[in-house]
Amino acid sequence: MIQTGDKLPDATLFELIEDERAGCTIGPNSFDVREQTAGKRVVIFGLPGAFTPTCSAKHVPGYVEHAGQLRALGIDEIWCVSVNDAFVMGAWGRDQHASGKVRMMADGSAAFTRALGLEQDLSARGMGIRSQRYAMVVDDGVVKTLNVEAAGKFEVSDAGSILATLS
């Protein structure tokens, strides 16, 4: 499992782009994790799945609500990573009013999640390989803070916990 002080793995995540802009086409776009975090402070939080109860009721809404406070403390971007495709993550982002606050990053094949060592097998629950629930602060591609939840818990990966580590 990735640890504090480690560099993020070489991986690609996908984001659904709905507005034409420089360097991006409309639809799913791939983003190199190391390039996207270079020279930036980024909060990355991972969770089991889009539209799931705790993820939709607490995890994403907390980061959407506190995005301004996190930016005021020097965070350049906030990423939500889930083992879902870019279309699902885009729809979930619209539902959660995340636009401009939280980037909804798809890890459809769980390649990034596996490279972090933060995967979990939820096949018995019909979900396949998914991400554990976690949050990290990354500075220029290096993990500075890593909070991984115990199974079934939501106590250390919420926006409030990350705010507390930055204050």
From TrEMBL:
First-tier enzyme category under EC: oxidoreductase
GO biological process: cell redox homeostasis; cellular response to oxidative stress; hydrogen peroxide catabolic process
GO CC annotations, alphabetized: cytoplasm
Residues covered by the Thioredoxin domain: 2-167
Keyword Oxidoreductase on entry: yes
Signal peptide (residue range): none
Keywords from the named record: Antioxidant, Oxidoreductase, Peroxidase, Redox-active center
Superkingdom to which the source organism belongs: Bacteria
UniProt xrefs under Pfam families: Redoxin (PF08534)
Active site per the UniProt annotation: 55
Catalytic activity line of the entry: a hydroperoxide + 2 glutathione = an alcohol + glutathione disulfide + H2O
InterPro entries per UniProt: PRX5-like, Redoxin, Thioredoxin-like_sf, Thioredoxin_domain
Gene Ontology terms, MF aspect: thioredoxin peroxidase activity
Family per record: Belongs to the peroxiredoxin family. Prx5 subfamily.
Protein name: Glutathione-dependent peroxiredoxin
Organism: Paraburkholderia xenovorans (strain LB400)
